[in-house]
Design goal:
Length: 125
């Protein structure tokens, strides 16, 4: 399950699922909702590329994050740098989609809760 929440200071935009740490990275929590231990897996984040003529990208940027094995009912915070090419020059927003267990390494009772999506605005210190 992808969920909000962390122990680090987070910058959160009102009304959005975007959470960022003090460096401007996307921060999210992956949680094992079941009683059984989950093996290590991959969490995949896709960042949009809204301005391919202005930014150095040819399509969505895929970032794979190693997700450690999770004992039952536990979670882990993951952090991913947001590529500059993701920000739309008209809206200053970066659209992203998070998919847990991208390689389908974990046998689950509920596969429907493995994704979340949102948008982050520019990072201001």
């Amino acid at each position: 399950l992808v969920e909000a929440g962390t122990t680090q200071p987070i910058v959160r935009e009102p009304g959005d699922v975007c959470q960022r740490n003090s460096q401007g990275d996307l921060v999210f929590r992956v949680h094992n909702q079941g009683a059984l231990d989950a093996p290590a897996s991959i969490t995949r984040v896709f960042f949009g590329c809204p301005n391919p003529s202005l930014a150095p990208c040819t399509g969505p940027t895929q970032v794979d994050v190693a997700t450690p094995a999770l004992p039952g009912f536990s979670g882990v915070q993951l952090t991913v740098a947001i590529p500059n090419s993701c920000f739309n020059t008209s809206t200053n927003k970066c659209d992203f989609k998070i998919g847990v267990d991208a390689g389908e390494a974990v046998t689950e009772a509920n596969e429907a809760n493995n994704t979340a999506a949102g948008a982050c605005g520019p990072f201001i210190l």
